[in-house]
Amino acid sequence: MYESYWKLNEKPFENTPDPRFIYLSQRHDEALSRMLYAMRERKGAALLTGEYGSGKTLLSRVFWQELQQEHKYQAAFILNPCLQGIEFVKEIYYQLSGGRDVPGTKIDLFHLLHKLLYSKYDEGKHCIIVVDEAQAIQSEEIFEELRLLLNFQLNDSFLLTLILVGQPELKEKINNLPQLRQRIAIRYHLKALSEELTREYILHRLKVAGAGVEIFSEDSFSEIYKFSAGIPRRINNICDMALLVGFSEQVGKINKEIIMEVAEDLEETTAHEEESAGLQING
């Protein structure tokens, strides 16, 4: 809608996990490096946590893209971890096996999964299981099933690598399960961007979208950081609305006043949504 006005090829601040727009700050680069290390060195399990909207899902997509390019891995990507017990393991088997029929009983399932992991190893492939939004796992039974999967190993290496991605409460859940916690070889917590990195993040996404001129004035960046607290998803929401308002008002640049206007509107919307949700729960 506003792309032609700002001379952009596409919208730069969509909250979708498009790897083209990944901004690898030092923290994001470190997080990705640790995930790749876990994969390439065939570690048992790795844990990536971060605040809501900090870029975890986008990082997991970049990680997924990387492992697909290397052609040395067989992977399962669990986007909906709200499955029950054995159904979770069935989904893993279904993806790793390329869509084969899933056995009905648990013992048959684990036998075939064990056989599958060994066959992939003989083919020179390592199996990777990525669980996104893993904090949504409610049952300890699921975590126990995941721990049992880590028993599939050789004398000197694991037959699979498990990567859990989620919000900060996932760390607490893992810490309350000592047997699983001890299997986590690599951990990283993704923090919010600094004010300077927020500016660089915005300019990076604008560049990817084809921006050839300065769109945001220098005084706007500190306001964006103030209202977003350096969380990429909030930055995207603010900047996207600012571009829309700037287009509607036919301004030459996005200044701090527009950011303040947009941020106030977004805060009111968020507060209203939280109030409505509270009424529904109490009702």
SSE map:
Elements: H1 26-40, E1 45-50, H2 56-70, E2 73-78, H3 85-96, H4 106-122, E3 126-131, H5 140-149, E4 160-166, H6 169-175, H7 178-181, E5 184-190, H8 195-208, H9 218-228, H10 232-249, H11 256-282
Parallel strand pairs: 1-4, 1-5, 2-3, 3-4
Mean pLDDT over all positions: 90
Structural shape: elongated
CATH architecture field of the largest domain? 3-Layer(aba) Sandwich
Q: Extract low-pLDDT stretches.
A: 270-283
For the largest sheet, list the strands in their spatial order.
2-3-4-1-5
- State the distance separating the first and last CA atoms: 39 Å
Oligomer: single chain
Main sheet attributes: strand count, strand direction, barrel closure? 5 strands, parallel
The tally of beta strands, per DSSP, is 5
**Fraction of residues in helices?**
40-55%
